[in-house]
Amino acid sequence: MVERAPDPGxxxxxxxxxxxxxxxxxxxxSPRVYEDEHLFVIRDxxxxxxxxxxxxxxEHVESVGALEERHAELAGRxxxxxxxxxxxxxxxxxxFRMVANTGREGGQTVPHLHLHVLGGRQLTGHGTA
Length: 129
Known about the structure:
The chain has helices at residues 19-24, 72-88, and strands spanning 34-35, 39-43, 51-57, 96-99, 115-119. By secondary structure, it is of the alpha+beta class. The chain has one domain (19-119): HIT-like (HIT family, subunit A, 2-Layer Sandwich), CATH 3.30.428.10.
């Protein structure tokens, strides 16, 4: 498990009822595609494409809508991780989609910020697959 500093806004780094926080803490095993002290990347358990990864910050931030100015560095790290894992998975050259569902009506099912990275086939439309 990677140590995380407390969130300066709340003093908390995780939400005990959040599945992604529990995965980050090592309470729920999940093989990592990539990880560092700020984020981790896992494969989606219900993939919508041959490559379907989730890029997840270790800090509990509910969604893109909950990002604040103090999260600017974290937001940049998330985007750089998307590029890194797209290259690692061999989809950077052919193209991929990055999706951040936000809120119930936006299709967000886990209230913890995460980016979907999809590729490995021709994607159509504007959805997640």
